[in-house]
Amino acid sequence: MRDLWNMLKPSAESLRNATYLPLGFRARSDEAIALVAGLAAEVCMRGGRQNARRGAENQVLFQNAVSAIVGGLLVNSQRMPAFEHTHSKASNQDALSVQLRSGLSYRPRAKESFTGERVSFRRFDAAFRGLQEVGYVESANGYRQFCAPKGDPGGFVGRSYTCRLWPTARLLQVAEEAGLELVDVRRHFRLEAPARPPVVLHALKERRGGVKVKGKRLPFPRSIEAEHIATEVNEINAFTMLHRVEVAGEHIEMAWHRAFSVDFGLHGRWYALGESYQVLPGDKRHNLITIDGEACAEVDVAASHLTCLYGHLGLPFDSELDPYDVFGMPRAVVKVWITASLGKGAALSGQVWPRQAEQHVLEKENLVLRDYPLPSVSQAVLKRHPVLADLPSQFESLGRRYGPSAGSVLSLFLMALEARVLTTPMLGLKTQGVLALPIHDSLVVPQSAVRATKQALTAAFQESLGITPRLRVKTGASRGPVANLVGGR
Predict the structure, then answer these.
(1) Is residue 256 in a domain?
(2) What is the per-residue pLDDT across 91-144, written as a single tens digit (0 to 9) for each?
(3) The dihedral of CA 277, 24, 197, 17: what is its sign?
(4) 77, CA 20 to 30 Å: which among 388, 465, 478, 481?
(5) φ/ψ (deg, to 5) at 158
(6) Per-residue pLDDT tens over the stretch 37-85
(7) Number of folded domains in the chain?
(8) Is residue 400 one of the residues assigned to a domain?
């Protein structure tokens, strides 16, 4: 079986579309419980006295780690075709056909990425290495990939991939022999949300060797504001337990936490724990979600960060006009220019587009940014939105408060304004018995609550920022398969 695996390699498509591996999967069927127990025992026996001693002392914790890894990999393995055959002859065509259906998972392996998870770094590392040694799982280290933009062989854009993980043909075969129907593997494993506090606080990201590294976890302050925010999250989580949320007909347990940076003036977005509807493609999300059996709609704030910027500075804003409508420029080009400028904290300048912007537009819109000279785009957008011409001077206070440059925190500041505004209608709709699922710049609600949601969002923006937002509503009632549902990249 191991020889069979060596004849296969992950396809480029599977590497790009790998699914996040959460660590909350628990065996719930008799077949899955027996499979996990058997695998854990085999790993301990094959691993020698150290693993045996580990199993004797912490059998439950070790089995939980095995369950999280095996359950997550098996669930993700059924999401999409992932492997290409690279050998002319296969000794076991049946096993090959099983393996060809498998999809990849991705999971950061750094210790800090396990904070608040149900499986510790030490347990995960021990269980994964043990499963790998006996041939049940495989992995590929993270790397940076470069590609040439369409129509420009001389230029390159890069993309980083974190560690990829997958089940081998042997694990898939053993699982089926144990009675687990892989096409219905979710019946055998239940995903529990991470045991995280309702509100977390991190330091700002740092650059180490040219790479941004997540800031360290900061102690949670004891203040009236901190308690108030935590209470709001707990209230929403408790309210959510009274409702049934389904994605493509599959029930998921909902809970959130809010993540801030440095203090409560930066970031503050709502993040779903466990299975996250937030990472579903934007054009399919509202079609796949139901709340208490009712089809949903997504009420979206167009150009949310730009809207918050206008409101914070007290500038007039016409909600009847598309903020990304600039004469002579594709909407996608204008949007990426504005997004990059707000992320940088200053208007884009010079002659060359940022690599990440090139990559984003190439992948999402199949456009080559170099076909649109940066100076020409800058001139056109600044004529439409002159407020973006001198962002550093308008936000000097952020630099004085958080560091030498306001650029690195401007986007986090706008996120905080956005999250604060979205929280108000979430709480208001709760009093009307309506559950609203946050997605950073939008809310997913039952279709019957669209009107109330638009009214609540408009009122919140007017009260908090003195501005009327441009709202868009996406509705639909189709159902389909879910791809890359879990987690976030």
Answers:
(1) yes
(2) 343 333 333 345 789 888 888 788 778 899 999 999 999 999 999 999 988 766
(3) negative
(4) 478
(5) -115, 160
(6) 999 999 988 765 354 445 455 788 899 999 999 999 998 888 644 333 3
(7) 2
(8) no
